[in-house]
Amino acid sequence: MASTAQAGEKFIGNWILEPAESHYEQGSAPRSGTYRIERDGDELVFHMNWVDVEGEIFNMSFQGIPDGEPRPYNGGALADHLSLEAPSPTRLNSSAYLKGVELMIATRTLVDSARYMIVTQTIILPDGSKPTNRSRYRRAEV
User: Fold this and answer.
1) Beta-carbon neighbour count of residue 117 at 10 Å?
2) CB of 133 within 8 A of CB of 108?
C-alpha cells in the first residue's frame, strides 16, 4: 500500500459521469453528475454532484485518510464510521459502517490509463442481499 501522503494520488481531479455507461440494480442512474477528488493534507476529499431522473439536484461530500482505519463519520442514521483505503495506485475503496456493521462498500477503479474511473457501490441490506450500482466517469479535460 502507498504511503498515506501518496495514496489515491491518481484519482485526484474532476470526473464527469457517463450515464449511458452506468448500470444500477438499486434506483436509477442519474441524468448527469460530477465527482471531484482533492487532497487536503493526509486526507482525500470527495465532492459528488448529480441530477436524478426527476431533475432533482443532489450534493454530497466526505473526506478521510486512506489508511483503511474506520473513523467516526456523521452519516446520520445511515453510517457512524467510514474507512478509506488505497490498496493499489488504481484502486480506492471506502466502506461505511453503522454500529460496527459494514453497510456499504464503494470501489473506485481507474481504467484505460486513468482516463476513466469505475465506481462500484454495493449496499448490504438487512435481508443479506447486495444490490450493486456501477457508474463510469471520464476524467475532465484540464
Assistant:
1) 24
2) no
State the residue range of the domain holding 84.
9-139
How many structural domains are present in the chain? 1
Q: Per the structure block, which three cell numbers stand in for 64?
A: 478521510
60 in any annotated domain: yes
Q: Please state the pTM of the whole predicted model.
A: 0.91
CATH number of 89's domain: 2.40.128.20
Q: Identify whether 2 is part of a domain.
A: no
∠ CA 11-123-109, rounded to 5°: 20
Angle of CA points 122, 128, 129, to nearest 5°: 50
Q: What are phi and psi of 62, to 5 degrees?
A: -155, 165
Shortest CA distance to 97 belongs to which of 76, 130, 70?
A: 70
- Tens digits of residue pLDDT in 34-76: 999 999 999 999 999 999 999 999 999 999 999 999 999 988 8
Residue type, 111: V
